[in-house]
């Protein structure tokens, strides 16, 4: 029987066809990394099967295909019109009652006492193109609370398959529109709104350090801000002379993203001007930098080649969490080029 929900602690790389690449990697780390000091937020995956049932229940496949057939593939003059129509079809569609109940039950199990905040993240499955899609091509939503907002956010992720950018990307790379399917990751929020977040690259080369870890960091949630303004830290993998061999660039960090005090649906975060006292202050101290570098080395050893990972620091617990992971491009830390090898069979993290 096809599963609708798979908990992260029950998922692994072998489940990629059901939960997509991101969720499979998170499940792998959740299962194998917790005892080695890697913190992974609890959660579950809404499977690709639910996406298929949603499409079938609303007879969307044929309608979407007809829209894509009318797309102007020469200069994309009707791209906006076509994308709007496709997204409207998905957002107006009804979630199958049985699958909606299973999803909201799994959400309730995460928060037995009251509704809690979750991140709702797209996780792609596309046979033959599994790690090709650039980061951010499909939507994610943060600080989602309550079953109604959760189902709405999932539909928003589904609709993002037909954003103007996503449609054009598939056209430019010869990927059939109907071949791309989504699982959705439902992940307990890390309270980074009062902490910080960023991206880690497990393999980076600079003249001084030919084999290094690169970290970027900003205050708050990290979304909707300019990465080029973030702090950057380059750490040699030897980690010798702890704290003294780190190359630090303190960014301007002009904006940060925080939680909305009162949120509705997916309107749940807010980008604000960073307070002056935080702009000139380093986001990470040496202890935090070295802890993230240790995690990066552990991840690369686990997968046997370079990866890019998203991290967040809980401002209340002061713990570092891994919220996402994907293969890195060999010899580059460009997260927008995903033409990389697939994640290998998992090995126990030691």
Automatic annotation (TrEMBL):
GO terms for biological process: gluconeogenesis. It catalyses: pyruvate + ATP + H2O = phosphoenolpyruvate + AMP + phosphate + 2 H(+). One of its GO terms (molecular function) is pyruvate, water dikinase activity. SUPFAM superfamilies: Glutathione synthetase ATP-binding domain-like (SSF56059). It holds the Pfam family PPDK_N. Pathway: Carbohydrate biosynthesis; gluconeogenesis. It comes from the Bacteria. Its EC number is 2.7.9.2. Residues 17-332 form the Pyruvate phosphate dikinase AMP/ATP-binding domain. Its cofactor is Mg(2+). Keywords: ATP-binding, Kinase, Magnesium, Metal-binding, Nucleotide-binding, Transferase. Catalyzes the phosphorylation of pyruvate to phosphoenolpyruvate. Belongs to the PEP-utilizing enzyme family. PANTHER family: PHOSPHOENOLPYRUVATE SYNTHASE. This is Phosphoenolpyruvate synthase. It comes from Flavobacterium album.
């Amino acid at each position: 029987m096809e599963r609708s929900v798979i908990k992260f602690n029950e998922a692994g790389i072998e489940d990629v066809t059901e939960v997509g690449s991101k969720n499979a990697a998170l499940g792998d780390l959740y299962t194998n990394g917790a005892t080695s000091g890697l913190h992974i937020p609890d959660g579950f995956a809404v499977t690709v099967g639910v996406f298929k049932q949603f499409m079938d229940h609303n007879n969307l496949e044929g309608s979407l295909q007809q829209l894509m057939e009318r797309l102007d593939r020469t200069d994309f003059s009707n791209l906006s019109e076509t994308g709007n129509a496709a997204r409207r079809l998905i957002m107006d569609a009804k979630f199958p009652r049985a699958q909606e109940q299973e999803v909201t039950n799994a959400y309730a199990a995460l928060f037995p006492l009251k509704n809690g905040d979750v991140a709702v993240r797209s996780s792609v499955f596309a046979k033959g193109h599994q790690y090709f899609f650039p980061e951010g091509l499909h939507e994610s939503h943060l600080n989602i609370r309550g079953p109604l907002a959760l189902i709405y956010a999932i539909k928003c992720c589904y609709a993002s398959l037909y954003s103007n950018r996503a449609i054009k990307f598939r056209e430019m790379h010869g990927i059939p529109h109907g071949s791309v399917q989504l699982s959705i990751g439902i992940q307990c929020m890390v309270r980074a709104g009062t902490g910080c977040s960023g991206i880690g690259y497990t393999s980076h080369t600079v003249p001084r350090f030919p084999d290094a870890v690169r970290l970027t960091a900003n205050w708050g949630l990290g979304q909707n801000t300019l990465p080029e303004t973030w702090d950057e830290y380059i750490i040699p993998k030897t980690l010798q002379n702890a704290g003294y061999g780190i190359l630090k660039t303190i960014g301007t960090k002009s904006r940060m993203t925080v939680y909305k005090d009162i949120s509705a649906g997916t309107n749940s975060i807010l980008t604000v001007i960073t307070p002056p006292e935080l702009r000139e202050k380093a986001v990470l101290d040496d202890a935090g930098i070295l802890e993230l570098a240790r995690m990066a080395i552990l991840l690369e050893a686990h997968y046997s080649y370079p990866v890019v990972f998203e991290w967040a620091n809980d401002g209340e617990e002061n713990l570092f969490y891994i919220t996402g992971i994907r293969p890195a491009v060999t010899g580059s830390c460009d997260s927008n080029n995903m033409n990389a090898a697939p994640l290998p069979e998992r090995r126990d993290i030691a």
